[in-house]
Specification:
Helix content is 44%, strand content 18%. By secondary structure, the chain is α/β, with parallel strands linked by helices. It has three domains: 110 residues, Cobalt-precorrin-4 Transmethylase, domain 1 (3-Layer(aba) Sandwich); 107 residues, Methyltransferase, Cobalt-precorrin-4 Transmethylase, Domain 2 (2-Layer Sandwich); 52 residues, no CATH class. Bound molecules: S-adenosylmethionine.
Length: 281
């Protein structure tokens, strides 16, 4: 067995200090080092819980150089706790890379669970919770954002999006334009004094933000599309090609004629007999 230290990803509150766990406090107290996204921010948390463990910064802009430094510390037997500004490390914030590096080096990685803003927003959103897709922040580049929203538009599960206040209006406009008038839940300042959770349509969301200064942190939970709409769109698409060409798409792949007829009938929402009669005349 090696004498390496352990890397612990430790969740911290997303706005309400009472949401810290007993275990999080103990693990942070016992660690040799706490690696934090923003040391000034985390210092306030540590002061509140009387934790005196030394802090190191680890964030998006220094992770390439700081990652190997922390790995060396772990290999020399130091236990490191990784925290981010809020919630669970690795979810839309640094964490992923250092976990990969640690595992590659045979270092044990574990976690102290706690809040994830997206999950908290989802469970009180009134949207479907049995199936959901976590998107996090949409890409900043317009082109990439467009591609991503195109992909999202075909999902039938609820979609969780994170957004900063200065971009929220733009994002809502965009979502409305691309996804149509779906149901959305806007969850703001979760677990904080001014927590607000409002379920509305995307059209209503446009009005909601009109003339309003967006403040605080937002999670958006958007209704997935209806499977029937997807099926109809797919059927409409097939109507643009002839049944013969449609059959060829399958037979060219080596699929037998009988099976191809079944698939074509399914795609077009008709019976196999209809396809058979069309081909045999
Ligand atoms: N790791 C965090 C988690 O577990 O949820 C997310 C970190 S990400 C950098 C920050 C984003 O999370 C914010 O821009 C916002 O979209 C969301 N968020 C964090 N705290 C929130 C809160 N109290 N209420 C609503 N959204 C929050």
């Amino acid at each position: 067995m090696n004498e390496y230290g352990i890397l612990t990803l430790c969740a911290t509150p997303i706005g309400n200090l009472e949401d810290i766990t007993y275990r999080a406090v103990r693990v942070m107290k016992e660690a040799h080092i706490i690696a934090a996204e923003d040391t000034r921010h985390t210092r306030k948390l540590l002061n509140h819980f009387d934790i005196n463990t030394p802090l190191e910064s680890y964030h998006e802009h220094n992770k390439v150089s700081k990652g190997p430094f922390l790995i060396e510390k772990l290999k020399s037997g130091k236990n490191i706790v990784l925290v981010t500004d809020a919630g669970t490390p690795g979810i839309s914030d640094p964490g992923e890379d250092i976990v990969r590096l640690a595992l590659e080096e045979g270092i044990r990685v574990t976690a102290v669970p706690g809040p994830v803003a997206g999950i908290i927003g989802l469970i009180i959103s009134g949207q479907e919770t049995s199936r959901f897709y976590f998107e996090g922040f949409l890409p900043l580049s317009k082109k990439e954002c467009q591609i991503r929203i195109d992909e999202l538009s075909n999902l039938t599960s609820s979609i969780i999006i994170y957004e900063a206040p200065h971009r929220i209006k733009k994002t809502i406009n965009y979502l409305h334009k691309e996804l149509g008038n779906r149901s959305i839940t806007i969850a703001r300042e979760l677990t904080k004094k001014y927590e607000e959770v409002i379920k509305m349509t995307l059209e209503e969301a446009l009005l909601y933000f009109e003339g309003k200064e967006a403040r605080g942190e937002y999670v958006l939970i958007i209704e997935g599309t209806d499977q029937e709409i997807l099926d109809k769109e797919a059927r409409d698409e097939w109507q643009n090609i002839s049944i013969e060409d449609h059959m060829k798409k399958y037979t060219d792949k080596g699929i037998k004629e009988k099976e191809a007829m079944r698939l074509v009938a399914k795609d077009r929402g008709v019976s196999r007999r209809d396809i058979y009669q069309h081909i045999k005349v």
